[in-house]
Amino acid sequence: MTEKDRFEAATEMVATAIQTAGVFGENQRITRLIVGNLGRMAAELDAEPGSPGGRALIRHALAGIDAAEAALVPKLIEGLQALDRDPG
Predict the structure, then answer these.
(1) Does residue 6 contact residue 44 with C-beta atoms inside 8 Å?
(2) pLDDT per position in the chain (88 positions), as tens?
(3) Is-contact 64 15, C-beta < 8 A?
């Protein structure tokens, strides 16, 4: 998966979680899947020389959630923030 693909995938995953939460409420299973997948993709970026690093991916995902949407996916935000703080 290319760097661009990872960032696009992150955007799509977050958008899907927000859309789903808007209809059904935040789904913990979806949240765990997204956080896990983004954590894995971030680790892959960290291992690639010359990449922007995994934190850039996580911060990109967080930036895709505006204030109004944040109320719909608090656990997703919490999980992504934990990844952003994780030193390794």
Answers:
(1) yes
(2) 676 799 999 999 999 999 999 999 999 999 999 999 999 999 999 999 988 999 999 999 999 999 999 999 999 999 999 999 876 5
(3) yes
Are the CB atoms for 67 and 28 separated by under 8 Å? no
Q: What share of the chain is helix, strand, coil (3-state, %, to 5)?
A: 75, 0, 25
Cβ contact 78:31 at 8 Å: no
Contacts of 45 (CB under 8 A, 6+ apart): 3, 6, 51, 52, 53, 54, 56, 57
> Residues with Cβ < 8 Å from 20, sequence gap 6 or more?
27, 30
Dig out the tokens for 35 from the structure.
């956080």
Distance from C-alpha of 16 to C-alpha of 10, rounded to nearest angstrom: 10
